[in-house]
Specification:
The chain is of the alpha+beta class. It is built from four helices and six strands; from the N terminus they run αββββαββαα. The strands form two sheets. It has a four-stranded antiparallel beta sheet with strand order 3-4-6-5, with helices on one face. A two-stranded antiparallel sheet has the order 1-2. A hairpin with a 2-residue loop joins strand 1 and strand 2.
Amino acid sequence: MIEETLLEAEEKMDKAVEVAKEDFGAVRTGRANPGLFAKVMVDYYGTPTPLQQLASFSVPEARTLIISPYDKSAMSDIEKALSNSEVGANPSNDGQVIRIVMPELTEERRRDYVKIVRGKAEEAKVSVRSVRRKAKETLDRLVKDGEVSEDEGARAEKELDGQTKAHTETIDELLKRKEAELLEV
């Protein structure tokens, strides 16, 4: 029972780290990247749909992204979703494709991105700590109900703390790399 609890906690912590990686990837650096729009949801016939399912992407130049909708009638909905996204994109539509020219990153904009990334890292750490808290409650209940000894419970709690520390350090390392990438001119 202890192993199952620890394994489940580790899987959930791994997912929190993966979400942090995806969130960091969505924060742009100097180049246009389709990953920036991975979390953009488009209201497609009344249903929130990921942009990736509605269009193809190409990057002809470093700061230009071209989005080709599969359904041309969804063009205005896609354009509206892009304008409202936190990416800070200004889409222009020529009737066939949507063109996005990413603005040059200023020092102030880079600092804003660093703040966003720090916020996402903190959310991931809170998620990891929440998983730890729930797993610890489960372990405490097992000890209290007499299903495992106090020594086994203490050993499992130490292992859980080690997992938590490792995952928060991984998030910190990812954050440090992303900050350096964002502040690099």
